[in-house]
């Protein structure tokens, strides 16, 4: 019944659509929410959507994980390993940024009691 | 500061003179790829170098008076180096470098005065930089036409190119020379600059604009005639330039008359004098250029003399307004003679060389048949008598109007020595009007491939329209003066000095010390009742430039609203721009 | 054992030293190493220079070709690497010698400063798109953290704002990287360049725009640069100097490196980039007119110069490109000088507001004099170095007979003069007697004096270095040579 | 020796002509106003009286030297105006000068006067000087324009050459260039301090004017130079427009004719305020001058 999903075009279409939806959700959150943590989460969501897109579009139905193990000794029909490696790296970086952001936000809250990005007015044009 | 440094400074101030003596070959070295700086000494530059060589040590000497201001001295040295580079430049890049060094070092010198305010300093630097950047734009256009930066006559220029070049260069030099309506920076800065530096500003730096204008003539030998043909017996474009110059002179002269401050008056007078020079350059004939150069020479000597005298007065009294001075003739006699000789030169009266210069210009105007210009120039130069008189009357004659003026002493010797030297030079050139022609001006004219004026002897100034003999004139006048004074003193009778300064015929009353007896600033106030003069004095360009500055600030405020402090706005703008350009691309590319 | 002197040290050395930082604290080597690292890198750069001038140095840490970490040091990237090392050296020396704010002198600052250098070096050197992203994030994270180091409200605000906008930029950039990989299956820049032309047009545009937004935010181009003044104002001036002097330059370089490498005909994009550059320049200069805070004013001025460099590089002619590269170097020197001056003034008078600095020229004559020098150089007044590079750029435009950028550049310089000279006038205001609150050691002026000396030297004798920039411009512009060098003659 | 004798002769001639002309003027003026008036020698007597006053009040050295300068200026002016043409006599040093120089020399004297007045410390005197300079500013423009027309006509600034070109009545400047004469006529009257432009030194209406502080011998000097200067100007105009004179009698005749013309004009009009005078000069004579320039310079060049 879900065989049509085996068609890479359809599958990729769905992935792309989903990733983009996620991207726009993140973007919406980023633009509409003023809570610092919510903004950071929105950024994380946007990043995630990009990872999803990457992984999703780089694999086609029927490909196996690119790991050589028992019985699997050839590189045929394997998914491209590069996107996955890259995504892993990107996730790590994203996490680092997110961690830094959250810690800054917490420090900021402790110092000023504010979490609202709109109330950050120490630095502004005259 | 040790005497070694002082000596070094004096030596540097003599460097233009040394350069003039020692220069014998051309120099050149690379700057960046495709740009070579080259230094050479043309006759024209040599003339202006002579002016610089005369003036620099004379201003350096009083600058050394204790307590000396070391940054000022350093900046003055930089300024001198810049100006020498500018004059020696054989290519436009070194010309521009010299021009800019001159601009910023003079600006920083201007800041050394405690009186300089924001408007003055900003207008000084912005006008001068505008001039510099126009010059640079012109240089780049020139470069794109000729393929290198050498200063040489551009022959293969198309009309629009030549037009843009003339406009760019012309505006640049006219700003520096301070013609109307680009003069607004001059009165303020000459007034508020350090007193001695005002002398240099007016005497030397303003001449660089003149140098540029004359250089422009050599770049485009047919620029004046080529564009719009000839008007009467002269170039039509030059006619325009000449009117610009003459209107500058007229307006500046009337403004000068109405000033109540010595340095401001001299500043406006500078504008007017440079206006004459501009007029002469506009005429463009060999006679006129000789007149322009002669005027430049005289104006340099006279203005330096006057500004140094005034600096001495300000130093000794702390006053600079006409109303606060008076009767200094008895306290500062040498300064009085300095100012007296100065104004005689400034007014262009015989027998001083100011007359020779004006004579050449007048004759060149007659020769070009531009009589209306001549009349306008006469108006300016006759009206100049009024401010000249004001300049000598208000500080030196009349009644002392402030305690400082009553107790002032003669200026210190570093101020007097330059004055005496300058007076001597003025008298020398007055005696021998042909001297300047023969030694200084004719080589330039020959260098510009124009007919030299020539002079039978140094005592004579001779043109195709006639001339005069300076020595005879001076001798006749001197003899007459001696004769008259001698005869007068031989007459029977007694001279009696009035018992008190208040012993006056004063409308039937006896004035007291409280009676306001100094005409000072009142002089020239009646002039406003003349409709034309009143109208001129009511006009001003300051409003326009202040308005422009205001518009700039408003634009800054408007654009500043873009730079809000909210990250979401930043992101929103980025996303919107992204989406919009994508959409535009999609529509254009038919996505 | 001798260590091979290869470009990888530019990235590896600071990374290693940064991560081993606990050791240095113990050994009290923190400050010497902070200064020593960039000094060593600078030395390395000069050692490599003769080699680089003959042929670009390529280094591949191979996983499986074309996968692997490619580092590529050619004449253009050499300029940037040397610049990064030098700027790092000056700033770090200032931090050491000025003996000022303790938060800049502890381990965290050490780590982040070295990471910033490593990230920047990596971005410039890498020949690989994904590594570019990684280094971009390394540099980014360390920059966010550096901004927030002071940990007061304004510093944290700056750090957070920077982090938010920076992350968004990174997401956009990552998006474009993903798309490129999906389209070409390559990450090596040279390989992508070969395949880029075959990507469908709309996709090319999408990728290009994503990259433009990502790098445009980072490189402070006009519609994406509204964050800049806030961040510069909130950060310590020495750090802001690094951003303006170093980080932006790197991003600009990366942007143009990509443009010149990926596109067969960079002119198509160049005209748009020139437009952005012109807008950046003019708008920033105009807005700077009304700034009352020194750091903010310098931020806008920095934007203006970035616009100028973009304008020059976007034109893509050798003369303007060489001039643009030269101007990058000059601007870095100048902005370092100015921001370090700002740091001295800020320390001395506790405020960077115009009104509070009136008369500072008397209390801190040396700092004020250096400020004047920097201001003159940034406006491109001879005989300082800014003039030589500006002249080179303008000459390039004039040679090509294109005069609108010339007019805009000169107009911008005039506006720039409007505010710089206002500041100079106020600094030398004679009516105010200002007293310095905190002392500043004489040694703090040493790095500034070095920068000032170089500004004068490069202004008077730019012929000493002009060949480097010409070669750099050729390396940057010559797409074919790069491709051949990386992929072999066959491709 | 010749030069010395010639110079002394010129000074003497101008002095004698001066007081006689002004004596006549006072007579004529009185008759027009239905008075008897003073004798024609009265000016001479007045002058001598001043010179032999036993006491003179001064206000400092400049107050004394001012009149000396103005007198020397008057002598110099006289000596640089050629009185006769085609003659060795009464030439002074005129071959060393020119028209423009003479016009400027006319101003040197007043400058000395102004210095002395300023030195006196009397504000009314300075006010008078300022008015004088203002009037000068007004009259000089059309005056010089008219002379420039003459210079252009003869293409020289040499008075000798201009005189030499006017051989015979038909070649007089008056005939060949009448419009230039009209242009200079009124400014010329003003420069002679004639009514209606004489408010500067008006002795009756305002107790002021440049000479308010002078008395005794110094006033005598001022009076003398005034008369001599007037004669110099008259002779100059005679030279330029009336063909000059070959002997002294012709000179006196022509100068007298011109003097009569100006006198008649002066007597008819009421006195103008300074600013009115200046405005008048810039409107009427200058307008006439502009017209003259257009007619005689622009039009021929365009039609050519």
TrEMBL record, chain A:
Presence of keyword Membrane: yes
Homology family: Belongs to the CPA3 antiporters (TC 2.A.63) subunit C family.
Source organism (scientific name): Thiorhodococcus mannitoliphagus
Keywords in alphabetical order: Cell membrane, Membrane, Transmembrane, Transmembrane helix
Gene3D superfamilies (UniProt xref): 1.10.287.3510
InterPro entries: CPA3_antiporter_subunitC (IPR050601), NUOK/Mnh_C1-like (IPR039428)
Segments crossing the lipid bilayer: 12-32, 39-59, 85-106
Name of the protein this chain belongs to: Sodium:proton antiporter
Pfam families xref list: Oxidored_q2 (PF00420)
Membrane topology designation: Multi-pass membrane protein
Localization of this protein: Cell membrane
Superkingdom of source: Bacteria
GO cellular component: plasma membrane
TrEMBL record, chain B:
Residues that span the membrane, as ranges: 38-61, 73-89, 95-111, 123-143, 163-184, 196-220, 240-258, 265-287, 293-315, 336-356, 368-392, 413-437, 471-491, 570-588
Record PANTHER family: HYDROGENASE-4 COMPONENT F, NADH-UBIQUINONE_PLASTOQUINONE
Gene Ontology BP terms: ATP synthesis coupled electron transport
InterPro entries xref list: ComplexI-like_HydComp (IPR052175), NADH_UbQ_OxRdtase (IPR003918), ND/Mrp_TM (IPR001750)
One term of GO molecular function: NADH dehydrogenase (ubiquinone) activity
Compartment(s): Cell membrane; Membrane
The protein's name: Sodium:proton antiporter
Domain NADH:quinone oxidoreductase/Mrp antiporter transmembrane residues, every copy: 89-380
Bilayer disposition of the protein: Multi-pass membrane protein
Main location: membrane
UniProt keywords, alphabetically: Cell membrane, Membrane, Oxidoreductase, Transmembrane, Transmembrane helix
Statement: the UniProt record of this protein carries the keyword Membrane: yes
Keyword Protein transport annotated: no
An annotated GO cellular component: plasma membrane
TrEMBL record, chain C:
Entry's Gene Ontology BP terms: ATP synthesis coupled electron transport
Keyword Cell membrane assigned: yes
Any one Pfam family match given in the protein's UniProt record, by short name: Proton_antipo_M
GO cellular component, as recorded: plasma membrane
Annotated TM spans: 30-49, 79-97, 109-126, 132-150, 162-183, 203-228, 240-263, 269-290, 297-316, 336-354, 366-382, 402-422, 443-465
Principal subcellular localization: membrane
Membrane topology of the entry: Multi-pass membrane protein
Subcellular location: Cell membrane; Membrane
Record domain NADH:quinone oxidoreductase/Mrp antiporter transmembrane: where: 127-414
Keywords annotated in UniProt: Cell membrane, Membrane, Transmembrane, Transmembrane helix
One example GO MF annotation: NADH dehydrogenase (ubiquinone) activity
Domain of life assignment: Bacteria
Similarity field: Belongs to the CPA3 antiporters (TC 2.A.63) subunit D family.
PANTHER family (alphabetical): NA(+)_H(+) ANTIPORTER SUBUNIT D1, NADH DEHYDROGENASE
Name of the protein: Sodium:proton antiporter
From TrEMBL, chain D:
Membrane topology: Multi-pass membrane protein
Magnesium is among the record's keywords: no
Keyword Oxidoreductase tagged: no
Protein keywords: Membrane, Transmembrane, Transmembrane helix
Annotated compartments: Membrane
GO CC annotation: plasma membrane
Transmembrane segment boundaries: 6-25, 62-84, 96-120, 132-152, 172-190, 218-242, 248-268, 280-299
Domain of life according to the entry: Bacteria
Stretches assigned to coiled coil: none
Name of the protein in question: NADH-quinone oxidoreductase subunit H
Origin species: Thiorhodococcus mannitoliphagus
Lineage, top ranks: Bacteria, Pseudomonadati, Pseudomonadota, Gammaproteobacteria, Chromatiales
């Amino acid at each position: 019944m879900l065989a049509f999903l085996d068609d890479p075009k359809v599958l990729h279409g769905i992935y792309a659509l989903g990733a983009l939806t996620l991207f726009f959700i993140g973007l919406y959150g980023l633009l509409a929410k003023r809570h610092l943590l919510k903004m950071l989460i929105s950024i994380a969501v946007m990043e995630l959507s990009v990872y999803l897109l990457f992984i999703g579009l780089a694999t086609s139905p029927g490909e196996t994980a690119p790991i050589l193990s028992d019985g699997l000794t050839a590189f045929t029909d394997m998914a491209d390993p590069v996107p996955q490696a890259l995504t892993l790296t990107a996730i790590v970086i994203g996490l680092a940024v997110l961690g830094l952001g959250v810690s800054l936000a917490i420090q900021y809250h402790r110092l000023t009691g504010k979490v609202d990005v709109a109330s950050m007015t120490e630095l502004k044009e005259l | 500061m040790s005497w070694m440094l002082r000596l070094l400074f004096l030596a540097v101030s003599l460097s233009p003179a040394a350069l003039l003596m020692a220069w014998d070959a051309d120099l050149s070295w690379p700057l960046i790829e495709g740009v070579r700086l080259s230094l050479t000494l043309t006759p024209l530059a040599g003339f202006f170098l002579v002016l610089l060589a005369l003036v620099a040590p004379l201003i350096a000497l009083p600058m050394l008076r204790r307590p000396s201001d070391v940054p000022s001295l350093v900046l003055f040295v930089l300024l001198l180096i810049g100006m020498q580079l500018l004059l020696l430049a054989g290519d436009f890049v070194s010309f521009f470098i010299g021009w800019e060094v001159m601009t910023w070092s003079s600006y920083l010198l201007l800041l050394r005065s405690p009186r300089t305010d924001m408007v003055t300093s900003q207008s000084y630097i912005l006008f001068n930089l505008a001039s510099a950047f126009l010059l640079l734009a012109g240089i780049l256009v020139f470069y794109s036409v000729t393929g290198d930066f050498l200063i040489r006559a551009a022959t293969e220029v198309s009309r629009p190119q030549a037009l843009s070049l003339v406009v760019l260069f012309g505006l640049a030099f006219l700003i520096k020379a301070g013609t109307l309506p680009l003069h607004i920076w001059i009165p303020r800065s000459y007034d508020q600059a350090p007193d001695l530096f005002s002398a240099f500003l007016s005497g030397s730096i303003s001449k660089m604009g003149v140098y540029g204008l004359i250089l422009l003539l050599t770049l485009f030998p047919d620029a004046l005639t080529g564009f719009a043909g000839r008007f009467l017996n002269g170039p039509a474009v030059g006619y325009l330039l000449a009117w610009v110059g003459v209107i500058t002179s007229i307006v500046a002269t009337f403004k000068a008359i109405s000033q109540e401050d010595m340095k401001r008056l001299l500043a406006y007078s500078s504008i007017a004098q440079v206006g004459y020079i501009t007029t002469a350059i506009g005429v463009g004939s060999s006679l006129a250029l000789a007149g322009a150069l002669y005027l430049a020479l005289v104006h340099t000597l006279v203005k330096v003399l006057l500004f140094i005298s005034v600096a001495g007065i300000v130093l000794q009294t702390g006053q600079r307004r006409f109303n606060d001075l008076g009767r200094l003739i008895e306290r500062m006699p040498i300064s009085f003679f300095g100012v007296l000789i100065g104004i005689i030169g400034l007014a262009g009266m015989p027998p001083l060389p100011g007359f020779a210069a004006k004579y050449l210009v007048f004759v060149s105007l007659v020769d070009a048949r531009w009589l209306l210009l001549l009349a306008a120039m006469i108006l300016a130069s006759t009206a100049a008598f009024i401010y000249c008189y004001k300049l000598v009357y208000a500080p030196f004659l009349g009644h002392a109007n402030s305690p400082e003026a009553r107790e002032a002493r003669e200026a210190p010797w570093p101020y007097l020595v330059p004055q005496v030297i300058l007076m001597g030079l003025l008298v020398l050139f007055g005696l021998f009007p042909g001297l300047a022609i023969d030694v200084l001006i004719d080589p330039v004219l020959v260098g510009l491939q124009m007919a030299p004026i020539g002079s039978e002897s140094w005592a004579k100034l001779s043109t195709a329209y006639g001339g005069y003999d300076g020595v005879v004139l001076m001798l006749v006048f001197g003899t007459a003066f001696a004769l008259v004074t001698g005869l007068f003193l031989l007459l029977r009778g007694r001279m009696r000095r009035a018992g008190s300064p208040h012993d006056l015929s004063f409308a039937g009353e006896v004035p007291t010390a409280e009676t306001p007896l100094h005409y000072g600033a009142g002089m020239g106030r009646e002039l406003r009742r003349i409709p034309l003069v009143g109208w001129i004095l009511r006009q001003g360009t300051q409003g326009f430039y202040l308005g422009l500055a205001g518009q700039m600030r408003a634009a800054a405020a408007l654009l500043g609203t873009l730079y809000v402090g909210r990250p979401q706005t930043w992101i929103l703008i980025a996303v919107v721009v992204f989406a919009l350009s994508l959409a535009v691309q999609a529509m254009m590319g038919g996505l | 054992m001798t260590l091979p002197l290869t470009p990888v040290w530019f990235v590896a050395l600071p990374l290693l030293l940064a991560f081993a930082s606990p050791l240095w604290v113990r050994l009290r080597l923190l400050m010497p190493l902070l200064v020593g690292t960039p000094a060593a890198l600078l030395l390395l750069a000069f050692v490599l220079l003769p080699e680089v001038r003959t042929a670009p140095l390529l280094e591949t840490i191979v996983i499986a070709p074309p996968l692997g970490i490619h580092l590529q040091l050619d004449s253009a990237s050499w300029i940037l690497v040397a610049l990064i090392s030098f700027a790092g050296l000056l700033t770090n020396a200032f931090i050491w010698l000025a003996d000022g704010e303790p938060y800049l002198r502890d381990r965290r600052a050490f780590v982040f400063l070295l990471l910033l250098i490593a990230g920047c070096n990596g971005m410039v050197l890498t020949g690989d798109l994904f590594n570019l992203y990684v280094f971009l994030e390394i540099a980014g994270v360390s920059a966010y953290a550096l901004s927030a180091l002071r940990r007061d409200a304004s510093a944290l605000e700056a750090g957070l704002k920077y982090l938010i906008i920076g992350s968004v930029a990174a997401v956009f950039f990552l998006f474009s990287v993903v798309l490129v990989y999906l389209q070409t299956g390559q990450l090596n820049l040279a390989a992508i360049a070969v395949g880029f032309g075959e990507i469908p047009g709309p996709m090319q545009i999408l990728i290009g725009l994503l990259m433009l937004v990502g790098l445009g935010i980072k490189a402070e181009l006009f519609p994406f640069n509204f964050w800049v003044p806030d961040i510069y104002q909130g950060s310590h001036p020495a750090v802001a100097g690094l951003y303006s002097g170093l980080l932006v330059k790197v991003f600009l370089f990366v942007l143009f490196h990509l443009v010149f490498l990926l596109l067969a005909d960079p002119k198509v994009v160049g005209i748009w980039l020139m437009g952005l550059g012109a807008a950046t320049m003019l708008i920033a200069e105009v807005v700077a007119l009304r700034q009352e805070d020194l750091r903010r004013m310098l931020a806008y001025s920095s934007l203006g110069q970035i616009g100028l460099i973009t304008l020059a590089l976007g034109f893509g002619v050798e003369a303007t490109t060489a001039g643009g590269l030269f101007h990058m170097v000059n601007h870095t020197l100048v902005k370092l000088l100015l921001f370090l001056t700002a740091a001295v003034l800020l320390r001395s008078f506790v405020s960077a507001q115009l009104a509070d600095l009136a008369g500072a020229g008397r209390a801190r004559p040396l700092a004020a004099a250096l400020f004047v020098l920097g201001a003159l150089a940034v406006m491109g007044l001879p005989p300082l170095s800014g003039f030589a590079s500006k002249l080179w750029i303008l000459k390039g435009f004039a040679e090509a007979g294109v005069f609108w950028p010339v007019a805009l550049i000169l107009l911008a310089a005039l506006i720039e003069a409007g505010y710089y000279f206002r500041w100079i006038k106020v600094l030398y205001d004679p009516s105010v007697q200002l007293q310095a609150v905190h002392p500043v050691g004489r040694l703090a002026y040493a790095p500034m004096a070095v920068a000032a000396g170089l500004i004068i030297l490069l202004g008077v004798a730019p012929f000493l270095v002009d060949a480097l920039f010409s070669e750099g411009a050729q390396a940057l512009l010559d797409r074919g040579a790069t491709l051949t060098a990386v992929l072999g003659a066959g491709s | 020796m010749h030069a010395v004798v010639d110079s002394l002769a010129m000074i003497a001639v101008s002095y004698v002509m001066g007081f006689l002309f002004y004596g006549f003027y006072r007579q004529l003026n009185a008759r027009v106003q239905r008075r008897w008036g003073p004798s024609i020698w009265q000016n001479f007597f007045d002058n001598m009286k001043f010179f032999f006053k036993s006491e003179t009040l001064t206000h400092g050295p400049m107050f004394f030297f001012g009149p000396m300068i103005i007198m020397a200026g008057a002598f110099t002016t006289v000596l640089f105006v050629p009185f006769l043409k085609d003659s060795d006599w009464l030439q002074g040093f005129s071959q060393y000068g020119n028209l423009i120089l003479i016009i400027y020399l006319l101003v040197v004297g007043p400058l000395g006067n102004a210095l002395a007045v300023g030195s006196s410390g009397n504000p009314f005197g300075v006010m008078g000087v300022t008015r004088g300079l203002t009037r000068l500013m007004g009259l000089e423009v059309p005056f010089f324009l008219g002379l420039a027309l003459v210079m252009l006509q003869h293409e020289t600034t040499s008075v000798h050459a201009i005189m030499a070109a006017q051989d015979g009545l038909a070649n007089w400047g008056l005939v060949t260039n009448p419009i230039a004469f009209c242009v200079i006529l009124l400014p010329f009257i003003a420069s002679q301090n004639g009514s209606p432009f004489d408010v500067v030194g008006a002795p009756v209406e305002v107790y002021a004017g440049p000479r308010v502080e002078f008395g005794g011998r110094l006033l005598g000097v001022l009076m003398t130079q005034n008369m001599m200067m007037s004669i110099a100007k008259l002779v100059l105009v005679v030279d330029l427009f009336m063909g000059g004179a070959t002997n002294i009698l012709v000179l006196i005749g022509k100068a007298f004719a011109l003097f009569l013309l100006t006198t008649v004009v002066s007597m008819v009009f009421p006195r103008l305020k300074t600013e009115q005078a200046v405005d008048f000069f810039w409107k009427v004579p200058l307008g006439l001058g502009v017209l003259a320039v257009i007619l005689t310079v622009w039009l021929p060049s365009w039609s050519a």
